[in-house]
Amino acid sequence: MTTPNIQFCSLCIEDDDNNAAFKWCTECETFLCIDCYIHHSKNKASKQHKTLPSNEYKKLPHFIINTVNRCPDHNQRYQLYCRNHSSACCLQCFTEKHQNCKDLKRLHDILNEMKSSVSISRLEKDLSNVVENCELVVTYLGTRLSRIREQKTKGIHEIQHIRKSINERLDKLEQNMTRELNQEYTKLTAKTEKLINQVETKNSQIKDLKEDLAKMKNFATELQTFIGLQEIEKTTAEEIGFLQNLIQSGDLEELNIEVKLSSDIKSILLNTTSFGRSSVTSTYVV
Questions:
Q1: Where does the signal peptide begin and end (predicted)?
Q2: Can you tell me the distance from the alpha carbon of 224 to that of 212, in angstroms, rounded to the nearest whole number?
Q3: Counting CB atoms within 10 angstroms of each CB, which of 11, 83, 206, 271 has the fewest?
Q4: Rounded CA separation 239/231 (Å)
């Protein structure tokens, strides 16, 4: 009985003994306990076999674990390699499937050719170069992340700065226009209030003349009435002239305070649809 994390000796299991595996033999494809490993390493037929600690077995790549030395169909060791089918085959496979294949070689010769070739060293060099290049790319991309982070922060500061400058400029323009508006309002109200006082004074004087005329009619002698009428007519003519002068001078024209906003300010609201734009530019990196 095995557990998920413990491998047992393949040979001992055949004898119903559960001894923890110590080594894995890549040639025999069996787990070996310490005792079996000692015998295995002394046996002439197996002492040259490659072994590795059993706890390293599961760390092997899947293609290594899944590649066995014996044919799963006939339980015979592979002895030939068919280049036509790119597969290893046993003698039984050759008899059944590969008699017409023209490019068959002994597996032992193929493996010896592989050992003597430079393909492994070249592949190791290529892999080392790929690893080095990947590390360079990761370093570069990390630098790029830092750079674009700084660029984003700089961009935000620029946006905030121009926004602050615009606000300060608009505040200044608003203050100037408000001051100008207040000045116009003060002049207009002062002029109007002065006219109101003048007209009210004249109106009070006319009312007094009207009362004097009524009293004169009831109580004055004819001579007094004659002289009084001349005085009242003179004063009345002056007051009528005052009112006519108000009309002719334009003092009674309709006056309005009108605010006309700058077309430049309006264009900001009407024509400005964005604060700007952000874009990504690229530069070829060798």
A1: none
A2: 12
A3: 271
A4: 13
211 plus 96 within the same structural domain: no
Residue 1: per-residue pLDDT:
40
pLDDT, the chain, mean? 88
Type of residue found at 160: Q
First to last CA, the chain: 58
225 and 147 both lie in a single domain: yes
Domain boundaries, position 59? 1-67
Picking from 118, 76, 108, 106, the residue whose alpha carbon sits closest to that of residue 93 is 76
Who's near 69: CB < 8 A, 6+ residues apart? 27, 29, 77, 78
Q: In what order do the strands lie in the sheet with 51-53?
A: 30-32, 23-25, 51-53
Q: Is residue 157 part of a domain?
A: yes
* Residue keyed to tokens 């559960």: 18
**Burial grade of 41 (CB within 10 A; 0-12, 13-18, 19 or more):** middle
Rg (CA), the chain: 57
Indicate whether 162 and 238 sit together in one domain: yes
Asked if residue 205 and residue 88 are part of one domain, the reply reads: no
Q: What is the CATH number of the domain that holds 79?
A: 3.30.160
**Spatial separation of the C-alpha atoms in residues 54 and 146, rounded to whole Å:** 45
Cβ atoms of residues 110 and 103 within 8 Å:
no
Residue 141 and residue 82 share a domain = no
Whether 77 and 181 share a structural domain: no
pLDDT of 21 reads 92
Q: Are residues 112 and 131 in the same domain?
A: no
pTM of the model: 0.53
Q: Nearest 5°: phi and psi at 46? A: -125, -5
- Whole-Å CA distances, 117 to 62, 120, 221: 25, 7, 154
